[in-house]
Structures are given as C-alpha cells and as structure tokens.
Amino acid sequence: MTSSSASHLPSLSCFDAAIIDLDGTLVDTLGDFVAALGGMLADLQLPQVQAQAVSAMVGKGSEHLIRSVLAHVGASDEAALYERAWQRYQHHYLRVNGQHSQVYGGVIEGLDALRARGLRLACLTNKPRDFARPLLAAKKLDSYFEQVFGGDDFARKKPDPLPLLKTCEALGSASERTLMIGDSSNDARAARAAGCPVVLVSYGYNHGEPVHGVDADGFIDALSELAGRGEPRC
Ligand SMILES: O=C(O)COP(=O)(O)O
Ligand SMILES: [Mg+2]
After folding, report:
1. pLDDT in tens, 51-78
2. Quick one: which ligand is closest to 25's CA?
3. Per-residue confidence band for 10, with pLDDT thresholds at 50, 70 and 90
4. Is 21 one of the annotated active-site residues of the chain?
C-alpha cells in the first residue's frame, strides 16, 4: 500500500512559491550526522550513539541535537560540556559534510516540476547555514534555490512560524500561496502557524514518530509525485 494521499494534495497552480526543508526531505543526511557526532563523542571520550537514536533527535537544530545526544550517552555534566561539544561537532560536521549522505530518489524530478511551473523556491532548514550551503552545492541542488536559510538565520527556528514568514517575505510570496514541503511535525507546525499549506514526505525523520499522524494537507512518497499536480483546484 502506498502511503501517499495524492488526491488531497494541493495543485501546484495554487502556488507562487515553495519552501523546502533539507534534512530528511531533500537529502538523507543521517550518515553525516552519525559520523560528525561519532567524532565529537570520541573527542570527548564518551560512548558512541546508534543511527536509529540519532534519527529521532534530528530536525530541531544542532544545539538540540548535541544536548540530546550528550544526555542520551549519559554525559555527567552536559551543560558544562556543551561549548566544547559544539566546537568538536562543528569541526567534524564540516569535515564530513555530504560524504555520508544521498539525495533522495524523486527529488530532482520534483524540483524540476516545481521550477517548470514557475514557482520560486527557497530551502529552509534548522541546520546551521554554514552546513546547509556547502551541502546543497556538493549535491548540485543549490541552483534550484533563490534563497537558502539556516537555523541560525533568524531569531527562532521551526516549529516557530518566524522562519517561514521571513522566507515568504524574501520570496515576495503570500504565505497562503507558498507551499511548505517537509518531513516532520516541526515543518508542519511552522507552516500551519505561518498560514502556508504543507505537504510532508513519508521517508524522512519525524522525531521517531509515524509521520502520517501529523496534521498536514498531504503526504507523498517522493517529491516526483508533485509533477503533474497542475490542474487548477485550489
Ligand atoms: O535539525 C537539523 O539540523 C535539520 O533540520 P531540517 O530538517 O530543518 O533540515
Ligand atoms: Mg527535516
């Protein structure tokens, strides 16, 4: 059984722009996260963390991830360790960025379809901007986006609506005419609060929870399912 509900998907002709999440939506970056965290934990002489545990902690930005991992491995003084952990994590992430990650199937076809429909595109991630930009370039996705914003570009991150509202402003697009495409409740909550319709992919990281339980306007198994959604039914 397919997990998509394509008949409920909004038509692309209803939109002037799309805002697309990065980790878990465009690129499967779990391997990069695991490698960077592994380097950080080794430097701190702490036990390693398994990929499955990491996948449930990704999506709320680096600070949340590092604090969650330190707590998960039983670090004794997590608050005191944080600054050093962040420095080691940053060092290792920039070293491995893109080496253990893959663009999901259907992404290129989906981005081509959005572009062919004339939608203006932004990538909005909770990942730091300095991690996001080189990753998009390494995966040859950068040319699709006229705006790229990271988790440190605004005062608050998703699920707060602020980053979406600011991205709509940068794109010159009204929020109700801007489709959010993401992989988690974080993206959906931010979109709802900003007034953007939202579609979620079924394959990403939703904080360890089944994504179909999230309040969204549609679910897709691949971004390529957006192609052909052109008929006017807003
Ligand atoms: O938390 C992260 O670093 C990744 O978050 P994203 O899913 O918003 O790209
Ligand atoms: Mg994501």
Report:
1. 999 999 999 999 999 999 999 999 988 8
2. 2
3. confident
4. yes
CB 185 within 8 A of CB 158: no
pTM above 0.90, yes or no: yes
Measured from CB, residues less than 6 Å from any atom of ligand 1 are 21-24, 58-62, 125-127, 158
Assign 52 to helix, strand or coil: helix
Longest dimension (CA), the chain: 57
CATH annotation of 30-96: 1.10.150.240
Domain ranges of the chain: 6-28+101-226, 30-96
- CA dist., res. 112 & res. 222, Å (int): 13
- In this prediction the ipTM stands at 0.97
Q: Distance between CA 177 and CA 37 in Å, rounded?
A: 38
Task: Provide the residue type at 19 as one letter.
Answer: I
Residue 109's φ and ψ, nearest 5 degrees, are -60, -40
